[in-house]
Amino acid sequence: MKVEIWSDVVCPFCYIGKRKFEKALEGFEAKDKVAIEWRSFQLDPDMEYVAGQSVHEYLSKRKGTSAVEGKRMNDAMTAMAKEVGLEYNFDKAIVNNTFNAHRLLHFAKEKGLQNEMKERLFRAYYTEGKNVGDIDTLALLGEEVGLQAEEIRTVLQSEKYAQDVLLDQYKAQQIGANGVPFYVFNNKYAVSGAQPSEVFAQVLEKVWEEEKPVLITEQGEGFCTVDGVCN
Questions:
Q1: pLDDT tens digits for 192-214?
Q2: Cβ contact 118:18 at 8 Å
């Protein structure tokens, strides 16, 4: 079973949704049959880094409200994250463009470490206040999950994987994903938002039932068992 997840590194619901999906996956009988692929989606592709700008100020500008109201919204999100065991420290968050972070995720996918890289980027941004738009920071974070720091720097100083990021975002438009997180199961079923774990569990079960081969249980002639008996 293939599950594609469109998300952004700086989307608070995406990290929460990751935890809820993981909880559903834990109780799924065929979890070892599930292949997860993270797809790129930038909520603000034109965003430029502004030194000293707080995430509360950034949010207030995006929403057309005050910085106080921006902090109130972030505090509510922090409480929501805590319910699934996540620690959000918005006061420490550094707002930056996520294009390089998405390119790093494509590189990590090639190395078989995409899920680990996604988790590390989320924690770096939401909990630790690291600059996930900075190449040196990304190189160190990648090294922590098993990638080569110098190789990451070489990749990010080039244009490699740029088209992969743009293609993911184009695909999102084609399937009607205008927000994240957005989950697609076997290119057939879609779930939008950080839904309760029970919703993810139901979809996993439905898709798995459809994947199972049809078994005719009536045993007749021309049949051999695992113990070597043939009829």
A1: 999 999 999 999 999 999 987 65
A2: yes
Q: How many CB atoms are located within 10 Å of the residue 59 CB?
A: 20
Q: How far is CA 110 from CA 42, 107, 164, 182, 187, in A?
A: 20, 5, 12, 22, 21
Indicate yes or no: pTM above 0.70.
yes
* 192: exposed, middle or buried (Cβ count in 10 Å: 0-12, 13-18, 19+): middle
Q: How far apart are CA 102 and CA 5, in angstroms?
A: 13
Distance CA 204, CA 217 (A): 25
How do beta strands 2-7 and 189-192 pair?
A: unpaired
Q: How far is CA 156 from CA 61, 107, 162, in A?
A: 29, 10, 9
In the chain, the domains with their CATH numbers are 2-49+96-211 (3.40.30.10)
Cα-based angle 187, 192, 196 (whole degrees, multiple of 5): 115
**Long-range contacts for 57-61 (Cβ within 8 Å, ≥24 apart)?**
58/95
Give Cα separations from 75 to 30, 69, 70, 79, 84 (angstroms): 37, 10, 9, 6, 15
Task: Establish how many alpha carbons lie within 13 A of residue 127's alpha carbon, considering only the half-sphere containing its beta carbon.
Answer: 13
pLDDT single digits (tens) 96-128: 999 999 999 999 999 999 999 999 999 999 999
